Amino acid sequence: MPYVLGIDAGSSTTAAAVSRIRGGTWTRPEPVELEPGSTAVPSVVYLAEHGELAVGDPPAGSPDGERKARDFVGRVGDDVPVLVGGRSCTAEELTAVLARWVVDRVTTGVGERPEAIVLAHPSGWGAYRRGLLHRALWEIGLGDAVLLPRAVAATESHAARGFGGTTAAVYTLGGTSFEATAVRATERGGFATVGLAQRLDEFGGAELDEILAEHVRTVLGRSAVGGRSAGGSAPPDLRAACARARRDLAVATETDVLVRSPAGPVRIPVTRAEYEEMIRPALRTTVDLLDRAVRWAGLAPDQLDGVLLAGGSARIPLLTELLTARFPGPVQVQAEPRTTAATGAALAGCQVAARSTGVRPARPAPRSPAPDRRHDPADRHGVAPADQAHHGAVPDRYGNELAHRRAGTLDRYPDEARHGDPTRYPADTGYGDDAPEPPPRPPVRLAPLELPKASRLALVRGRGRAE
């Protein structure tokens, strides 16, 4: 049975969803169990004994602290490599390994390869980072995968569940990362990011858990029973207990943080009101960043049709309260927000696969694109139209809008790494490939550069220095 696959490779966890053709139409995307009983797996890659990269935690008894890598997705484009068991890897290589593992896992379970693969990535990426990841995917056998900003994927998921607006702010709070993005409907029926995405790479549910863990340590004191083991380090289960308490407080008004100690289990009661007071300053900062992302897009809060939430840590009642107080429009969050971007990526995959399958997805009524409300001749940040390409919206080949660099900056990747197979994507979908291929460039011959001996010596001495 033909199907499409959507993948959301997050900094802390990775989720996937599939949509199948049934009865002559595409079904609603369903999250995939990548591990028994779980629709999300940790975004962890380790160096196996045979020298190949594998996904997950190393086997028990191995020095996993030296052999595994995490939080690498947000590092795509960094010049500093990631060391995995002494092996130097790029962040895009590790992300491609993670995506390939998901594709193989789903292909094995279904029995055939998907008709289309859409991978959601951080919304603030420009053409350079997307090109690096596309090249890495191409080298690992996923050159036909389509890259989609996470905010666009999340908006597609919300649109399929009733959001009918044309302009929205997308708030994504994951385990170890946060991003805020403004999106707008396009003339081709899809969505696109506008303005500059705001991102925090070291803030998410894990940071909120640490705030609660510090409260637990304060309540118990610094004794061996309270928050510290005999070796002087925090109990290994304290962070996990705080994560469970955070999830419980999303639906309950009080819970207990259960901590093991040499004297036996210790229960620390925590109410939702207490917890909200602990995390309020941190969440208020993220709301400020969302407001900044909206204003960078040239919009005011009252011009939004809604605020859309995504990410595994987004179901916090206080978060909805803070967003409602700042933005007049409705705030929407799904029952399982950690799979929101994955299901939205699968919905985009239905559009991508329309040519090969002949089945087009049933989409909501066509949206009228929102007018461009950016200030003219200069926006409130003092950027004139000639410079708005630095932060404004420029559509790319897949219907996305990117915060491009200023004019004159060269793309540093080959065309095949950026676009993949130009015949793969339909021309009349929201994420199609409707731009003609540029004519081939004439050959350029460069004469070899002969350096004087002094310059060569300077190069040797200067190797290894950071620029």
UniProtKB/TrEMBL annotation:
Residues 370-422 have a biased composition (Basic and acidic residues). InterPro entries: ATPase_NBD (IPR043129), Hsp_70_fam (IPR013126). It comes from the Bacteria. Keywords: ATP-binding, Chaperone, Nucleotide-binding. Residues 354-467 are annotated as: Disordered. This is Hsp70 family protein. It comes from Micromonospora zhanjiangensis.
